[in-house]
Amino acid sequence: MTGYIVRRLLTAVPVILGLSVIVFLIMAMIPGDPALAILGSYATPENVDRINRALGLDRSLPEQYFIWITNLVQGDFGRSYILNRPVLDEVLERFGATMILAGTALVLCSILGLLTGIASAVRQFGWTDRILTFFVLIGISMPAFWLGLIFIFFFAVQWRLLPASGMYAVYGGGDLPDLLRHLILPAATLAIVATGVIARLTRAAMLEVLRQDFVRTARAKGLSERKVIYRHAFRAALVSIIPVIGVQAGFVLGGSVYIETVFQWPGLGAMLVKAVSTRDLLLVQGGVLVAATAYVLVNLATDVAQAMLDPRLKA
Amino acid sequence: MTAKWRGVAALALATALALSGPANAQTPPNVLVVGQIAEPQSLDPHVSTATNDFRIAVNIYDGLVRNKPGTLEIEPALATDWSVSEDGLTYTFNLREGVTFHDGSPFNAEAVKFNFDRMLDESHPFHETGPFPLSFQFSAVEEVTVIDDNTVEFTLNEPFAPFLSNLASPTGLIVSPAAVEQHGADYGRNPSGTGAFKFEEWQANQRVVASRNENYWDGAAPLEAVVFRPITDANTRVAEMLSGGIDVLLETPPDNVANFATDDSFIVHETTGPHVWYVMLNMKEGPFTDQRVRQAVNYAVNKESLVNDVLQGTATVSAGPIPSAFNWAHNEAVKPYPYDPERARDLLAEADAEGAELTFFVTEGGSGMLDPVPMGTAIQADLAAVGLDVNIETYEWNTFLAEVNPGLEGKADMAEMAWMTTDPDTLPFLTLRTGAWPEEGGFNSSYYSNPEVDELLDRARTSTDQEERGELYRQVQEIVHEDAPWLFVANWQQNAVTSAAVGDFQLQPDFSLVLRDVTKQ
Questions:
Q1: With 80 as the cut, is the pLDDT of residue B2 above it?
Q2: Which of A152, B215, B254, B514 is least surrounded by CB atoms within 10 angstroms?
Q3: A156 with A163: CB under 8 angstroms?
Q4: What's the Cα-to-Cα distance from A55 to each of A15, A260, B142, B463, rounded to whole Å?
Q5: Inter-chain contact A152–B136, Cβ cutoff 8 Å?
């Protein structure tokens, strides 16, 4: 297993590097440069040249990439042109915030999705199943940013129960309850769509497993229904549910871009959107690198979990 | 539901209620929370270019001079008075004594010299802490000389009348040399000035906090502290204002202004800024080489409807290149072209330009561009009504600038543009002179050229008599209005909403946000 993990991690390195080259080239191909973003209406060719020289953007592309990668190996991600701050500081701070939001959402949607899916499958076509399926369908069909706005309208503006935006209270605060209070709405918004997807697939997987012989055997042995469902059927179904959760983890990471914008959550997604529009090349590179690494790790974790549950995949 | 699960549910509910307790939706007493439109880029006023950042900077720093509150007239700040030599080349400033920066270091003539040398002299040891994108505002400065501790002299290489206005702009704010030496390239995150509020902390993407400077030379501010919060999404900003999370809301979306205006818990503030939104017309080739066609489009577009319907009253109709915010230079007698499609059709018929096909560059967004796509389509519709066939090409802002700034020749007949400036000279000097054609390094992308205007602008720029300058600019407006190199459209009316607890709040015409006199109950 350790060998497998190390091999997977090593193959991730060229993937991430390749990605950085692609991002570098795409950013170079789209018109406009940081100097234009900095200068706005004042962008004369002369001023643009002056700023580009000051930022080292007058060098050739391979040269710029080489400088970047050499510094990177030494742990220096460069300085953001626009924020005037080390890229690594900004990216790590943002990544931490994204992980809090996406992580909470992932835990929420996994627990809710699994419980809903199991409850539906166990009482197939019963009232519980119908009601849950109805809500699951609504959850899947709703655009997340729209749901976010609705939440803000009711919980923050109308009832004034929860804050509308930000990660901490503006003045004072900054402790855990403060963070949780700010986390509830965005995490719930982000989790709801993913919950629906997980619930549907859990229901399908459970139904399939429940029809199989070993479940009938377990029941025939006289095991309690709870043991049959959780210990035997659910465990078997997990093998096909885990990859779904892995995919949803990716979805939650990606979906956080909108949610971070709606709720002003200071995460990586919101940062990347801004950095692309201001042509802040080094910041985009650093952000993509970290996001890509997170994706690779999530995929790896999914595969490892699946392998551990299903002996057939261990080989 | 089993007893155990019931217990878990009750606990979850109790936690949720505890978390959603009364602590939120209230801003602290005597601390002003400002909802900003974005995270600042830098609090080094020489490095920054964004209005958003300047709204913080003007409270942390002072310049040698400043704009009198509510106007664009110059008054003393860190300089108590000054004199200008007969030839307009030497400015001598007497500095305020006993002022210190927030870091404790003294403000004096050496500090002033350090500030300008750092921006303008490439061999200065701290020039590397740049780049200084707007330092060209001071490119006329040849040398800064320390006469004594409290006297400093600026020598210019040519007479340059906007010099004082530029000193009053954010790029002219004075930073602490000691702090720059200490923090180097990170100075923008560790700012130190002489202003009414001193910088406390900057939590990335959360807030910038500044507290009252008890020793402020102009008297300590009533507010204990100011918190600037970045809230980039306009709807979220509105929601925060409604839910009581902020005390001041900047740049309210037009749709929401009316709602706040009718609610007694809020006060809406509005003022016209030195902003012009126009459509440049390509005078080098195509139908717009004919003055009648240019005047025709000015008659054809219903600007009242644009500012009232599309922009919902957040702008006023513009009459020329110098906005009314420059009260001393604006020509009241020049009135906007009235909406008169009949007249437009007649002019087009005279010029034999009926049914002309026109290419119109429109941007998707950009600083000061208001609502460029709906505005572009409204203009297109009005021009179609008088028989002009306008094709819109839309570009993202950076691309747009890269297309438009090198000139419209061979590409387009019309292009949107907007400017915010600190002196009436800047916009016409950069966009209407013959010497400002793109190949000369200016922004006259529509190739307007009128020797009379060139001469008036040159004279206005070198005159040190404000009265005379004002008269010259009034003449410029009259001529440019008649020549119509642009379709004159709108002047943005900046707005802000404050809660009823906020007192003595005033918007400044230069789009800055001066909070030294503001109170909060």
A1: no
A2: B215
A3: yes
A4: 28, 30, 25, 37
A5: no
- Band of the pLDDT at B10, cuts 50, 70, 90? low
How many CA within 13 A on the CB side of residue A249?
Answer: 22
CB within 8 A of B520, min separation 6: which ones? B29, B30, B31, B32, B223, B247, B501, B502, B503
For the residues of B291-338, what is the DSSP string, one character each? Answer: HHHHHHHHHHS-HHHIIIIISTTSEEE--SSS-TTSTTT--TT-PPPP
Alpha-carbon gap, residue B156 to B159, rounded angstroms = 7
Q: Give the Cα-Cα-Cα angle B501, B504, B506 (nearest 5 degrees).
A: 115
Residue B14 has pLDDT above 70, yes or no: no
- Angle at which helices A2-29 and A281-309 cross, to 10°: 150
Radius of gyration of chain A (CA): 24
Give kind and range of the element (H or E) at residue B401.
Answer: helix B397-404
Task: Provide the CA A190 distance to its chain's centre, in angstroms.
Answer: 10
Which residues of chain B neighbour A89 with C-beta distances below 8 Å? 204
- Taking the alpha carbons of A45, A47, A51, A53 in that order, is the dihedral positive or negative? positive
**B chain contacts of residue A41, beta-carbon cutoff 8 Å:** 367-368, 401, 417-419, 443
Packing angle of the helix pair B451-462, B466-483 (nearest 10 deg): 160
DSSP H helices in chain A: 2-29, 34-39, 45-55, 61-73, 87-122, 127-141, 144-151, 176-210, 213-220, 225-227, 234-263, 268-277, 281-309
Beta-bridge partner residues of A64: none
pTM of the model: 0.81
Contact A165 B231 (CB under 8 A): yes
A114 CB neighbour count, 10 Å cutoff: 21
Please return the burial class of B478, using the count of CB atoms within 10 Å of its CB with bins 0-12, 13-18 and 19+: middle
The residues pairing with B270 across neighbouring beta strands, listed in sequence order, are B495
Q: Which pLDDT tens digit goes with each residue over B167-187? A: 999 999 999 999 999 999 899
Can you tell me the mean pLDDT for B237-246? 89
For residue B170, give the 3-state DSSP assignment.
helix
Alpha-carbon distance of B369 to B397, in angstroms, equals 10
Query: What distance in Å separates residue B94's CA from the closest CA in chain A?
Result: 32
Interface test with B, best of A145, A165, A183 (most B CBs within 10 A): A165
| Low-confidence stretches of chain A (pLDDT beneath 70) | 171-173, 311-315
CB–CB of B192/B102 below 8 Å? yes
CB contact under 8 A, A167 and B206: yes
The one-letter code for the residue type at A54 is: A
Question: Could B441 and A44 be called an inter-chain contact, meaning their C-beta atoms sit closer than 8 Å?
Answer: yes
The answer for residues whose C-beta is within 8 angstroms of residue B87's C-beta and 6 or more apart is B159
Q: Residues A288, A280: contact at Cβ < 8 Å?
A: no
Q: Which ipTM was obtained for this model?
A: 0.73
Query: How would DSSP label each residue in B61-110?
Result: --BSEEEPTTSS-EEESSEEEEEE-TTS-EEEEEEPTT-B-TTSPBPSHH
Instruction: Provide mean pLDDT across the span B255-262.
Output: 88
